Predict the 3D structure of the following.
Amino acid sequence: MKETFGKKIRNDLKESQIDWKVIIAFIPIAFFTYLFHEFGHWTFGELSGNDMILSLNNSAPQNGQFINDSDALWSAIGGPVFTILQGSIFLLLTWLTKSIFTYSITFFAVFSRFYSIILGGLNLQDEARIAAMLDWNKYLVAAIVLTILFLILWRSNRIMKLNKKAIGYFTFLGVFAILIVIGVNELIMTK
């Protein structure tokens, strides 16, 4: 007897360890990831002596100018560094706990940078700004960041024994969560 489409999806989700709790958890995970990334920019900017402001999808000097160009570079580096840090910490927690929730946080750290770089326009991303300030190739900087993050995700997938189909479902959840963050950010910015 042929399996119905709905039953196939339910079986795939179960095999991928995705239930309603994981689906719902993706929304706060997305907000946490965006804020943590921006907190990296804020932290490096503050450590450089700048009075920084922080929002859901932006961190900048309060007066609109960094004290000097190297401060701008360090602040730009802070976001990707914190995203890699998030992925690394939750990779370790995934290894220790085998929790699909810690995996989800690892996954989203990787996916959010990939999504931003590929679909958000590389020229608008931190990696392109870093490359311009260092006079490096923007594709090289993006490749370095994404390679580190993909290695973290590859290891997490191995720990959780997830297949390509599971990654597809997590990708779908990731797109959905990112669109919610972008929508909320647009609502906040228009007020």
